[in-house]
């Protein structure tokens, strides 16, 4: 699988006096779950949009398998916080729509859509209309739809941000299950410090003014879950609390009092 690489990427929006992001490098390969964290305005979404091909870097290079990223592509599926599903369609039809766009023949779509729905633990919900589903269930349909494109990379912008705490925790384990089953590389933006620690194989901490990397480090809690350890036991581990304190310090380091 190719690597998705941002190499010394700067983002400068038209009409702005300063760049939003300066010289950020991030490399995501198969099996990586890279999480971007940092204070508001540090450029997390801008970087995700560069990876998606929605924003062009002012300087530096964004590549996938060595080829420049110039536009969105089926190799990268993007899921936003409030992803628009078609409310008048059922969960299965929403996923099948994405399969149709991919050219999957009509007679294969329903079965494949059900497989994808069961991957996000929505077995049996295929016939439900979107308006009948909870926020967490809708987000699962959004993920199933993203996976319908069989992407090599999932780009997730605060995908769990609108969910209540309990649903959010459940969705974190769903994301980890998906990541280990689907063999994709993930780049995710979150405001949740615990969420970053639970999910990531690598956390990149950004600071604003203009956005730059202050720390980048590998974590192993998500892999422990993938290896069978219960999520609650992982969160109760003193190493988890220590990592949380360290990450919080890194995020707020240098912030004006
Ligand atoms: N389309 C745009 N045009 C002009 N400026 C923009 C645009 N999008 C973002 N910015 C600016 O770029 C900077 C980085 O924004 P970005 O949304 O990438 O940060 P973020 O870390 O994702 O923020 P948040 O955590 O608040 O979502 C901010 O100063 C923002 O105001």
Automatic annotation (TrEMBL):
Residue intervals passing through the bilayer: none
Keyword annotations: ATP-binding, Cell inner membrane, Cell membrane, Membrane, Nucleotide-binding, Translocase, Transport
Gene3D superfamilies from the UniProt entry: P-loop containing nucleotide triphosphate hydrolases
Keyword field contains Transcription regulation: no
Pfam families: ABC_tran
A GO term for molecular function: ATP binding
Domain ABC transporter, chain residue ranges per copy: 6-233
Family that this chain belongs to: Belongs to the ABC transporter superfamily.
Domain of life: Bacteria
Protein name stated in the entry: Taurine ABC transporter ATP-binding protein
